[in-house]
Structure formats: C-alpha cells, structure tokens
Amino acid sequence: MKRLIPRLLLAPAIGTLFLWMIVPLGMTIYFSLIRYNLMQPDQTGFAGLENFEFFVTDPSFGAAVVNTLLLLGSVILVTVVLGVAIALLIHEPFPGRGIVRVLLISPFFVMPTVNALLWKNMMMNPIYGVLAQVWIFFGAQPVDWLTDHPLFSVIVMVAWQWLPFATLIFMTALQSMDTEQLEAARMDGATYLQQLRYLYLPHLGRSIAVVVMIEMIFLLGVFAEIYTTTAGGPGDASTNVTFLIFKQALLNFDAGVASAGALFAVVLANVASLFLIRLVGKNLDK
Amino acid sequence: MPASLLVAPVRLAAAAAAVALSFGGLAQAQTELVIATVNNGHMIEMQKLGKHFEQANPDIKLKWVTLEEGVLRQRVTTDIATKGGQFDVMTIGLYEAPIWSKKGWLQELKTDAAYDVDDLLPAVRSGLSMDGKLFAAPFYAESSMLMYRKDLADKAGVQVPERPTWPQIKDLASKIHDPKNGVYGICLRGKPGWGDNMAFITTLVNTFGGQWFDMQWKPQLESKPWKEAVSFYVDLLKNYGPPGSSANSFNEILALTNSGKCGMWVDATIAASFVSDPKQSKVAAQMAFAQAPTMNTPKGANWLWSWNLAIPAGSKKVAAAQKFISWSTSKDYIQLVAKTNGWANVPTGTRKSTYANPEFQKAARFAAAEKTAIDSANPTDSTLPKSPYVGVQFAAIPEFQAIGIAVGQQMSSALAGRTTVDAALKAGQVTADREMRKGGYYK
C-alpha cells in the first residue's frame, strides 16, 4: 500500500514518456512493413521485408554506411586532438585571452546551413574562394575541393563547427587541474611531454569521453552540410545514411523504404554506442 | 445618481454586444482560403496584392503559407497524398500537375469568358490539361535559353545565330575560354538533382535525339544519343567550363555570370532578367540572348517549367478557390502588377496578351527570345522517337524523381571524373530499371 500510491502518482509521467518513445518507434516499424509511397497511393498492403531489401540493395547503401563511419570517426578524432591542443594553448593567462576564447567558441553558434554555405562559397569555391586565392598567390592550381575531395570537405566543415564545443569542454576541465600537483611535477623536473602524459591527459580523460559520446550522437545525423554543398555527390562520394534516408523519404516520397532505413539507422546507432559505452564506461569507472 | 448616467453604460454594453454579434456573423459567412505557395518574388507580390482581391470579395479571406520550393513540394505532396486537407489552393509545378490530375487528386478548373482561356500559351496549357480539361492555372512559366557575352563573341569574331548548334557553341567556347583572366567558355549545371543537373542534361539528350523511356517504358540510358550527349557535356565542361562545375546549379552559376566569369550559359529564361539588371550584374550591358542550342533535332532543346495554382479534389471551398485562381492568373492581375511595380516585373510566360503588349516588350528586352523558347517547347512531343511520357526536361511519372536524382548523382560523378560516362550511364540504367520494376511498369 505504501508503495502503491507513489507508483500511481508516477504513472502519468512514466506513461507519457513511454508513449513519447514507443509511438514513433511503433509507427516506424509499421510503415517499414507496408507498401507506402505517397506518389503511388493505389499500391498498398503488407510488404514483408521488401522495404528493407530495397534499402539495403540500394546502390548507394554501401557507400553511405562507409561514409557515415568515416565522417563520424574523422570529425571526432580531429575535434578531440585539436580541442585538447587549443585548450592547453589558451589555458595559461595571456593578454586578450577573453576575446580569443569568445572567437574560438563562436563557430559553434553558426547555423549548420550557414556554415556549409560559408565554406562552399567563401572558402572552397575553386574560382573566388579564399583558399583558391591562396593557391593562386603561390602560383599553384586551385584545388576543386567539393569535386575532388567531397567527403573531406564535409569533414572540414563539420569539424570546424564542433571543434569549439570540444575546446570549451576541455577548457573548463583544465580549470579544475590541481596546480600544486603540477608545480610539484615541475619542481621534480618533469618535461612538458611527461606532464602531458601523466597529468593533463588523465585529468582530461573523463571530458574526452563525454565529448566523444555527445559528438557521436549528433554527428550520426549530419545532414545540412551535405544537402547544401554537394547533395551527396559527386556520385555517392558524400552520401551518408541520413542523406540516403532523406532521399527516400522526401525526394522519392517512399515512406516505407525510408522507415526501413530509419530502423537501420537505429541499429547502427545502437551498435556504435555499444562500443562507446564499453569504452566510456571503463573510463568513468576509474 | 441621475438615470441617464446609468443608461449610458448599459447602452454601451448593448452596442458592444451588437458589434460582437455582427462580427461573429461576418466571420461565419467568411470563407478562409489557405494558399500554399513558393517564396519566389512573383508569389510574394501576389501575397501583397491579395488585399485587392479581399476588397473585391469581402466574404473571402486569404491565408498564406509561403515556403521554399523543396519544402513546399514536400508539404503539398504529403498533404494531397494523405488527403490531409490543409490547403485549399496549392502551388504546383508542371511536373506534378499531369501526375496528380491523372490520379484524380485535382479539381477541374472552370473558367468564364472574361478569363479568356485561349489566351494562355499553348505549350503551358497543354501541360496542365488532361482530355481537354484544365486542372491547374499557370501563374508564371519559363523555358531555357542561351545567354552569352556579346563583347567576347565579337572579340572572337563569331556571330551567334538565333538558334545555334552545339558544335558552334563548343567552337565559340574554345575561342573565349581564358581561365588566366578569369573567364570560362561555358557554365552549365552539374549539381545532382532531378531539377538541377538533370533538367539541363535532359534537354541536351532530347536534342541529340534521345529519350528517357521508349514506348514499352524501358529506360534508354545506355542508348547512343545518351552516350553522345553526356560525353559531349562532360567533355565541354572539362575543357571550357569553370572548375567546381559538379557543385554548380542555378544560383551558383548566376553568381559567376553576374561577376563576368561565364562566357555563355544555358539555363532558365528567368535568369535573363537578373543578368541584364545593372544593379546585380557587372556585365549587364554585354549580355545577349539566343535560343538553346540544338544538335540532331530542335525538339526538346528548350525546357518548359511553370508554377501553377490548383485545387485539391477534396476541397470544401471550391467556389472561393476557383474565384481566387481566376483572379490571380487573369489578364487583370498582370495589369495590376504592371500598374504597381512596372511592366518589367509582371509574371511572364503564361499569356499571349502579355507578349503582345508593347509596354512589356519595351521593358523586357529578352521577351521575344523567351516567348520563342516557350512556344517551341511541347511537353507532349519533346523527343525525336515517340515517348510515352509528358514533359520536356522530365518525365511526368511518380517514379521520375527517384530516377532523376539517382541518374543526376551518376552524371555529377562522371563530370567530376570519378567514373567514366559509360559506367555512369550503366549505373543509371540499373537504378532506373529497378524503380520502373518497383513501379510495376513491366516485369
């Protein structure tokens, strides 16, 4: 009796949360099993696993999965490595540190679409982009970034956007470093590399884990940068799973196949997070 | 307290109640039309001028949902396909109109004598009609044409004919291509998408004598005209095009042309008003216009696109919606825009009377070329061999979007040199075949 009342009182909240989660998932599963193309309303009925088959045998599918993982891996790697480096650089006080910090963090507040357009038109355009001008200044042939290195270009844009986030986290983490311990290490004659290896990095371990986890969740869904710059092309060179699902759902209007794709993405995200939780979990236990 | 002072508030309350009642009554009689449209300049203008319509029809109130093209297409398609009933008037493209009217999703439009339906340009009208019935009214329309730098052509000593051929264009491109000084021979679309690079490539294939599907609905991507046309396109852009072509579509090339970097450009006629506007273009005075180039046949060399207003079949406000569509696509509406914004800004491409107007001819110096281009396009007969589909730069079947996007990706890949033309066309053929089988056109 004592337990029943609190449980009853909790029920509405939990029930709502449960519905919140289960209804969209249930609908996605339902749509993935029927023939449901908005442009062909006369074709209906149970489709079995046909939608999954169509999604997985899509010629772009293999490339999309590889690109998703490449994008995810490289952006995380770049942001963590550079983020730690920058955070260490601006950790010690110097004149104008406040302004530098604000400037460093600002890319994170640029909208993804704007970010993509900035890079596409102002930086990477092979005719009037800033990078092309630099190449021409040195007498070199400008690189046609979006054509020759489409995935790399997208990685640059996304990494530019997410680097401030990583920097911000690491910067705050460094504030809580034990200065006495550092001083003691210096007195004992530890080189900077040794300090880095045995003091800074272990201290940052937890925040690195957090950055990796958060970025992974958000980067699986990178879309705006690809949509506005290369539209997944040339060929499938910059198509990721999200873009492929978008293509099925809103360009082909095939809700069935798109739902199948969405379920695949759920599986992909779960597999990735399984690895991650193992990794991060170990780190957090320490 | 004198009685009159007591009466006053009572009277006031009564008056207020009467006003409230009459407003309530008015709101009941008033029909609210929800109109979905594109955020193009012409449509924004229509929204502003809507108050004229509301004044003339006090029983109708207009509510606007203005969206970006891609989003509009998604919203409108999901609404009509699921019978959502959110919109009473929809802005739809020339691609959707025949598909939807065939499915019975659109209400037939009935027009009166004052509307003068015979004044509509025949190419556009036939694209919007089925069995002689009109299912959508054109708001503005466009075709494609060649825009080029007259000064560069003169310097090269080349006279560009009224309707040039592609070899002539290639020759001229080679003469004016001067990347050291930042001038590229020709700019063409390369960004993947059925409305991006495929719109242009389809017109090129048409004029080389190709088609999307034969009469048995078999995709024809590996046929000789496709191979020749795409090889020509890749070769032309590789040699005389700007770098980065595979990411360029209308807006990107417009920026290049306006800054004087493109010698020639084949694209939508609507671009003519931008590149010849000195406020936007550095080379406004040097721009000249001609018809889209041809190869083996002039058929299908100019594309045809229009934005149209239509009423979904389930609508409960058909009469009001009819009234609104008749107003916004009428001659009077064009006159109204001319009076408020000048003749250079009227919606074009829909009516013969617009082109016959001397004031319009004076205001828009590309008008004649645009009219010729639109007239030469025929959506029901745009390919040299007979085709089963309607449309010039697309095939008006539901499967085409998916096919166009997939083939567009392959084309951009070939243009970027990541794959050969033959391999790209083969991959496109496989996808097209897959989609057509899925759509049940053949086993």
Please explain how this structure is put together.
The complex is a heterodimer of chains A (286) and B (443). Chain A has 286 residues and is an all-alpha fold. Helix content of chain A is 73%, strand content 0%. Chain A is built from 13 helices and no strands. In chain A, helix 2 packs across helix 13 (255-285) and helix 10 packs antiparallel against helix 13 (255-285). The longest helix of chain A is centred in the C-terminal third of the chain and has 31 residues, at 255-285. Chain A is flat and about 75 Å long. With 443 residues, chain B is an alpha/beta fold. Chain B has two domains: 32-141 and 305-362, D-Maltodextrin-Binding Protein, domain 2 (3-Layer(aba) Sandwich), CATH 3.40.190.10; 143-304 and 376-438, Periplasmic binding protein-like II (D-Maltodextrin-Binding Protein, domain 2, 3-Layer(aba) Sandwich), CATH 3.40.190. Chain B has 18 helices and ten strands. In chain B, helix 8 packs across helix 9 and helix 17 packs antiparallel against helix 18 (421-438).
How are the SSEs ordered, and which strands pair?
The complex is a heterodimer of chains A (286) and B (443).
Chain A: H1 4-32, H2 50-56, H3 61-89, H4 97-105, H5 112-123, H6 130-137, H7 145-148, H8 150-175, H9 179-187, H10 192-219, H11 224-229, H12 241-251, H13 255-285
Helix pairs in contact in A: 1-13, 2-13, 3-8, 3-10, 3-12, 5-8, 8-10, 10-13, 12-13
Chain B: H1 3-29, E1 31-38, H2 41-56, E2 60-67, H3 69-81, E3 89-93, H4 96-102, H5 122-128, E4 129-130, E5 133-134, E6 137-149, H6 150-155, H7 166-176, E7 184-187, H8 197-207, H9 224-240, H10 250-258, E8 262-268, H11 270-275, E9 287-291, E10 304-310, H12 318-328, H13 331-341, H14 352-356, H15 358-363, H16 367-376, H17 400-415, H18 421-438
Parallel strand pairs in B: 1-2, 1-3, 7-8
Antiparallel strand pairs in B: 3-10, 4-5, 6-8, 6-9, 6-10
Helix pairs in contact in B: 8-9, 17-18
Protein name (chain B): Sugar ABC transporter substrate-binding protein
Signal peptide (chain B): 1-29
InterPro entries (chain B): Bact_solute-bd_prot1, SBP
